[in-house]
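Lab notes, practical 5.
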Amino acid sequence: RVAILHVTPSSVSAELPSSIAGDMADLLHLKNIAADAAGDGQTTRIPYSMESLVQADPDVIFLTSMGASDKIEKRIRGDIQGNPAWAALTAVKAGQVYVLPEKYFLLNPGLDYPKAVAYMARLVYPESAHE
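Output from the prediction step:
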């Protein structure tokens, strides 16, 4: 079970299976905790709810971003350290929180799509990773 969160310096949203990272997670047979959210087919993200995240308690959290990565990482670090709900998440306890590279997961990576899927696969299935 994975959560894919899109983070900017001012907001956080959950990515649906219709997003680039969501589609790749689906290809890897990962259960996206936002998969059951109602979408209009055009939407790739929904508003983020800490309560829903805590209830779903994902095994892995992927973070996508747009903007200054240092500000985003600082925001997430502050959120995790400042909110006991974050610390209680299985993914956080296990150190399974990953920032996905913007070049693969923000916009469609085109011909690099297989590289992007392989990147995500190595994070969740390290025992079967092949170069």
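Observations recorded by the TA: The first helix runs from residue 20 to 27. The mean pLDDT is 85.
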